[in-house]
Design goal:
The two termini are 27 Å apart. It is globular and about 55 Å long. It has one domain. It has 232 residues and is an all-alpha fold.
Length: 232
């Protein structure tokens, strides 16, 4: 599953360039101190990865609390179908305003805290910006969290989200170093790929849950089940 987390982060970072790119370009870097600048950039990505890992831990606790481990295959299929629906709704521009509006309003304080950190040129500020940035609403991150939830393990979910965060770094780092090398119209087009990515990940989870015996893609049932005790 970790390879799926990395691929999701790597391919999904096309979306990150459009969504998180403006925040990354506003990082308060000390350009005169090149060595310290790299440390600041590393702190930003570390902060984002830590926030992803923290959310993965929470979702892992939820998965264990719901005893999902005993129904891992069924839940993998369910989450896959849910992700396919999410992607389809996004492609068709269907939104649930009743749920989305109150949810988005809850992030106003987070955005304010993020804005305050952008004015500081300290190492802790870059770490905080990355950490807060990771909690901003993002369909790609939600897709990764749903994937992590299907693991039904706290440490498994933390590791999954950590690897996902690592996968988002290469393209984001390239954009940060080269500046506005991707025009805004192209960034918008890249954002249009997100629903397709979500649908593809959903299909992979459905195949994984079916246990068709296909190595890596749809392993047999015995490879999917998690046992708290060894069978005698």
């Amino acid at each position: 599953m970790l390879y799926l987390a990395f691929l999701l982060g790597l391919v999904g970072s096309l979306h990150c360039v459009g969504m998180c790119g403006p925040i990354a370009l506003l990082l308060p870097l000390q350009k005169k101190r090149k060595g310290f600048r790299w440390v600041q950039i590393g702190s930003y990505f570390l902060g984002k990865t830590l926030s992803y890992s923290a959310m993965g831990g929470l979702f892992g606790l939820l998965g264990e609390g719901l005893f999902i481990a005993h129904y891992q295959q069924e839940f993998s299929i369910f989450m896959g179908l849910l992700m396919i629906c999410m992607g389809a709704f996004s492609l068709l521009n269907i939104s649930i305003k009743l749920l989305s509006n109150p949810f988005l309003k809850g992030f106003s304080h987070l955005k304010n805290a993020l804005g305050k950190q952008l004015s500081k040129k300290t190492l802790s500020a870059c770490l905080s910006i990355g950490f807060l940035n990771g909690f901003l609403p993002c369909g790609l991150v939600y897709t990764a969290l749903f994937s992590a939830l299907a693991l039904a393990s706290v440490w498994g979910s933390i590791t999954y989200m950590f690897v996902f965060g690592i996968g988002t770094i290469p393209l984001m780092l390239l954009m940060l170093l080269l500046g506005n090398f991707i025009p805004i119209p192209i960034r918008r087009k890249l954002n249009q790929w997100l629903p397709i990515i979500i649908i593809l990940v959903g299909v992979l989870f459905v195949l994984r849950g079916l246990g068709l015996g296909i190595p890596y893609l749809s392993p047999a049932d015995t490879h999917l089940l998690l046992h708290s005790k060894a069978d005698c």
